[in-house]
Amino acid sequence: MAQQAGGQRPQPRPVPESLEARAYLQDYTTLLEAVPFPSVVLDHRWDVVLSNNAFETLFGGVGPHPTAMPHDNFLRFVLFHPDAGTVLGEHESSWCLPMLAHFAAAVETHGHDHGLQSIRREIAQDPIMDAAYRHGLPHWIRAVGERAYAHDGAVRPLLHPDPQWGPTDCRVVDETPGTLRDLGYTRLTLVLRDTRRAAAHPRGARRSAAHLRVVPAAE
Fold first, then answer.
1. Phi/psi of residue 137, nearest 5 degrees
2. Beta pairing class for 167-174 and 48-51
3. SS3 181
4. pLDDT of residue 194
5. CB 3.0–4.6 Å: which of 72, 123, 148, 196 could bond 101 by disulfide?
């Protein structure tokens, strides 16, 4: 079995026993594919339950890795894959530390989970990541406050392999419906920002017909 930093290749993820839950996930897969932005459904270990083609495209250029592929376990990818920084901009501050904060919270809630304990061992065996987890993370949490634990709404840089996007930002949007939440899953969508369009319309510039529906159009 492949090994990396003391960890094992993630075991196959169990499917829900309920036929109704399986049917729901099957239909949800169809919904996910209709979304143009990278979107992924994760369990509490960050194992990828579902992902769409846009998610696969975003990470399609990363090299092989025995335990940290983005379509297997997203947390391991962020923390341990050597190519993570080629897609995730400002990798340490914008991706690693927020994910480590969520991991620390998950360990408190699911402390005896074997999958999470395996990740914790991998962190402990990586000197840089272990120092970030034990020393850098508490300092960062004190500095940013409650935002440390909030994925939803965070704006993070990406280096998209499609030149149509290239270096850009994404807003992380938590789109978890109740049924997914009851199954122990979370859905995150990375809403890509067209930075070139934003540059063409600098802040304060007069816009034409387009406007937010909740904001009355100017007379």
1. -65, -50
2. unpaired
3. helix
4. 81
5. 148
